[in-house]
What we know:
Elements: E1 2-6, H1 10-22, E2 26-30, H2 33-40, E3 47-51, H3 59-68, E4 75-79, H4 84-92, E5 97-100, H5 105-116, E6 127-129, E7 132-135, E8 140-143, E9 146-149, H6 152-162, E10 168-170, H7 171-179, H8 187-201, E11 206-211, E12 215-220
Parallel strand pairs: 1-2, 1-3, 3-4, 4-5
Antiparallel strand pairs: 6-7, 7-8, 8-9, 10-12, 11-12
Helix pairs in contact: 2-3, 6-7, 6-8
Domain Response regulatory: 2-116
GO biological process, one term: regulation of DNA-templated transcription
Protein name: Stage 0 sporulation protein A homolog
Amino acid sequence: MRLLLVEDEPRLSEALAYILKKNKYGVDTAYDGETGQTMAETGVYDLIILDRMLPRKEGVAVLKSLRHQGIHTPVLLLTAKDSIQDRIEGLDAGADDYLIKPFSTDELLARIRALGRRPGQIQGETLVLGGFTFRPLHCELMKDNQTIKLTLKESLLLELFMRNPGQVITKEQILDRVWGLDSDVEANNVEIYVHYLRKKLNSPNLKIDTVRGIGYCLKEGPDVS
């Protein structure tokens, strides 16, 4: 699951990004509203954590713009404003949840998990395909009572494939989703991690096909019951 964190206070942003990564989330950060909006408009994120008081463009204005464009990515709004009217304004602008500063990291993680359980939002915490059960937040892949541990990058890659079975995913999409928009990682890294993932799947029931010159496609094999 890839998150966008838009928070202008550097120490808080760094601390939150560290905690989120430690809990197996992929995280990109922005420090002002305009940059955050530009990144959010790419559509590569599963959830946006958006501070309300931001330089260059205020958080609620960013949120309204995203919703006006038809971008429905779940948004968790962070704010030091705790009046009822402030909460109403944020929710009416399109926020899916609202967290008042200061907050505990346990509560933040719980809110993210709760958004993940809402129908039509981030999909559930367990994915099942081709006889495999995948738990993205635990980086665990299970088949026939065997648990296969994945690295964070492998987990993000498999999650992208399993949420889009049968669809061709380009190398550029994989780079943006797994490594982040600002990453200078080259396309051959994608090939390396696909190779790692194929070795761990090692099953005719679930295969990653190469679409030459474009990218990859996850398919269930012919002998899947």
